Amino acid sequence: MAGLACPSNQTGHQWHAYTKPDDFNTTHTYDARDGYLGAGDDWGPARNTTLPAAQQACGASGECQGFTFRDYDRAPPAERSLHVTFKTTSEHFVPDTGVPPRDLWQGSGPAPAALLNPQPQCSGSPYPPNATGCVYEEDLFAAVVLDAVRAWTVGASPLFALWATHTAHSPYQVPQDAFDALAGVEPPARRVYHAMVMRQDAHVGALVAALRAKHMWEQTLLTFSSDNGGPITQAANNWPLRGGKHSHFEGGVRVAAFVAGGWLPAAQRGRTIEDLIAIEDWYKTYAKLGGLDDDDIDDAAAAAAGLPPIDSVDVSALLLGHAAQGTPLRTDVPLGSCANFRSDVFCQGAAPGDTVVTGVVAHVEGFRGLYKLLIGGVPLDCTTGPAYPPPDGSHASCPWRECGTQGCLFNLTHDASESHDLLAATATPPPQELVAALRSRLVAHNATTFSPNRGQPSDARACAAATERGGFWGPFA
């Protein structure tokens, strides 16, 4: 969730938002430049210009009004550190030292170790058996965001907050009171998942209330977007879409998203936008909203390191109603993974050079509607139902779909659940011009893929860098 606030009850609008199929794969020239993603020796903030770095440089030069940045996820290296950064932990509960943590990455170094390393008593699902001395991680994040809003003063730089919430994500933990409030919801996995979402909803409500109390809401643009579809092998439900996290079916890549806030023109509120927006588009969109021009956004540091240009598209005109629907700013979204995805779903052992684009969602000139072409094997070929998982805790049978080299073709405008493969319809095959156009998109995207050096599962440099940062993972070369 990101927002720009200058100094919900108002309905925002939603759109077709697409994202990467899971948290680790790199598709095309996937952008790791919004300030919170670290990686190996040729990828990530170390050799990219992050959005905070670009905005702060622009503000320092006097060319635009720089943001005050707040980031709540993985810590970049010290030279790229933001004002506030939280570490992702393996537990949702962390020790409570009694000191209100404003900043778990403090300036050029980590916060006290007691706040960084979850203790054994804070483990357990759906909540620790004895939570004494523990605090729910998302409650920490919410407190810092609210503190930033309450501390803002008239005349200060606009406030930008990237809140990468960890609720509705593994591990499946909630405070006991949140779990108890949903007694009767079965199975327990679904109950804890609902409780996590309710906790997140309460935090967002508190944020909106704080913005209103500071008279900032009317000048705020709030964006909410998921990073991938829900994991249907756990307790999430993407119905009526097919598949889920780790799949190129719509349930894995078409996500919940909306925009709200008083800065959103009244005519835009409550509208549904049918155009494409991809997760990497937020980089350029918020950069443009912050006053940067194309020269500022072009990443000279990345180009000098031999990295490809950004794929981000500025969609602010679409959100604010300055661009007519039907003339999309983004014409397609490539879907990719590593070549050995079937055996290594997180691409942790993949070697450089093996990123492949195996799907594309696209508008094709001369054909009405939104189409999708998938090739190769696609996991999680199933749909669930409006209530899932059922009370007995069983999960849907989700085999792989073998699309092969011919591919599977869907008209998403009329078949969002991907139930009818147009290439399998021998009686009424799709126009060859349409198929050829989509295939050419795949070829073009595969010609420009970026394959980061993902490193090895055990790399002494990564461990040494993490130790130096007090346990924070980040670029290590």
Detailed description of the structure:
The radius of gyration is 22 Å and the shape is globular. Helix content is 23%, strand content 16%. The relative contact order is 0.18. With 477 residues, it is α+β, with helices and mostly antiparallel strands. About 14% of the residues have low confidence. The longest helix has 26 residues. It has a domain of 329 residues: Alkaline Phosphatase, subunit A, CATH 3.40.720.
Summarize the structure.
By secondary structure, the chain is α+β, with helices and mostly antiparallel strands.
Task: Output the CATH topology of the domain at 2-330.
Answer: Alkaline Phosphatase, subunit A
What's the gyration radius in Å? 22 Å
Mean pLDDT across every amino acid position: 77
In CATH, what is the homologous superfamily of the domain at 2-330?
Alkaline Phosphatase, subunit A
Structural class: alpha+beta
Percent of residues in helices: 10-25%
| Strand and helix order | EEHEEEEHEHEHHEHEEEHHHHEEEEEEHH
Number of helices: 12
CATH architecture of the domain at 2-330: 3-Layer(aba) Sandwich
How many individual β-strands?
18
Would you identify the regions where 5 or more consecutive residues have pLDDT less than 50? Answer: 4-16, 20-45, 69-90, 97-103
How much of the sequence lies in strands comes to 15-25%
Q: Describe the global form.
A: globular
Instruction: Specify the CATH class of the domain at 2-330.
Output: Alpha Beta
Biggest pleated-sheet summary:
8 strands, mixed
